[in-house]
Amino acid sequence: MMIDHPRLLPLRATMGRLMPGIAVSFTVAAAATFLSEHYGAPVMLFALLLGMALHFLAADPKCAPGIEFTARRLLRWGIALLGARITFAQISGLGAGPIALVMICLVATIGFGVLIARLLGRRWTFGVLTGGAVAICGASAALAISAVLPKDRDHEQHTLFTVIAVTSLSTVAMILYPIIFTALGFDTGEIGVLLGATIHDVAQVVGAGYAVSDETGDIATYVKLLRVAMLPVVVIGLAVLATRSGSSDGTPVPWPLFTLAFVAILFANSFGLIPPVIATLMVDTSRWFLVAAIAALGIKTSLQAMFALGPVNLAVVVAETVFLAVLAVLILFLI
């Protein structure tokens, strides 16, 4: 007969309270992964749509705590583990040209996002959230940036909307951009740079690049990794800004420790301190945590709340996407 230690009782009670919601979130993540692997659509989009279909569980007292835990805590752990995907060698191997292109596009797109958001009556945080997602790496960047921005009443709806918008636009770009860039007269190497610099999500960059040629796919992937490598810089900068300015209600914003964990893992991975098997495990764990977090966010948000945000939000993301593509083309022409 097992005797419960007094110190373990609170832990068991907490796990018992969280497990139903966590189990639901990971079940949706598994279903989304299955559909993505068999039908070729983005896993994040499947996770969102399936999660929204289960919105009624957000009000279930048995599931709600675990869903909230997955959407917040596991999200942060998943972002921290993303550091295992990046090394400094990947960054330095790209050379100066793509680095300059990515840096200019990154700063300009986020700045444009803030400007267009304010012009259309949205808060600057929405411009940073959408601009960062467009400029860096789509859904993963949206989740990471959202976690450090000051919270307002529409924060979760804006985050979920951004994930849906950038994922959908990435799929459209994967089809259209190779055709457009070829029609503009760029060679396969230049097309690879442009695809890596302009498409939001990694999977769509890979799909578009290798659809043109192996060389294009390799270059597009490298440039995209450079954009992904900018994520910790942007997130830490925004964390400093949010900590100093406080939240929308005037309360201080605590320092997000997961950003430090991200950087620590990035350094450890760059210096070979993480064995390849462990790094692979960390990347896989990160992916599952992020997909489950997206599913949990989908469960928490109703379609009615999403549509209530209106077409202005979509106009912001589309404008940022077009701005990034046009700017990258102009810079490459000048170079």
Overall description:
- By secondary structure, the protein is an all-alpha fold.
- It has one domain.
- It has 16 helices and no strands.
- Helix 3 runs antiparallel to helix 14.
Structural class label: mainly alpha
Number of strands: 0
Overall geometry: globular
Report the sheet-strand fraction: under 5%
What's the helical proportion of residues? over 70%
The helix count comes to 16
Q: What's the rounded overall pLDDT mean?
A: 80
Characterize the largest beta sheet: strand count, sense, and whether it forms a barrel.
Answer: none
* Rg computed from alpha carbons, rounded to a whole number of angstroms: 20 Å
Q: What is the terminal-to-terminal distance? A: 74 Å
**Number of spatially distinct domains:** 1
Low-confidence stretches: 248-254
Assembly of the depicted chains: single chain
**Topology order in helix (H) and strand (E) letters:** HHHHHHHHHHHHHHHH
Per-chain topology:
Layout: H1 8-39, H2 43-53, H3 64-81, H4 88-92, H5 96-119, H6 124-135, H7 139-148, H8 155-183, H9 188-198, H10 202-212, H11 214-229, H12 231-245, H13 257-270, H14 276-300, H15 303-307, H16 311-334
Helix pairs in contact: 1-2, 1-3, 1-14, 2-14, 3-7, 3-13, 3-14, 5-6, 5-16, 6-7, 6-8, 6-16, 7-8, 7-12, 8-9, 8-10, 8-16, 9-10, 9-11, 9-16, 10-11, 12-13
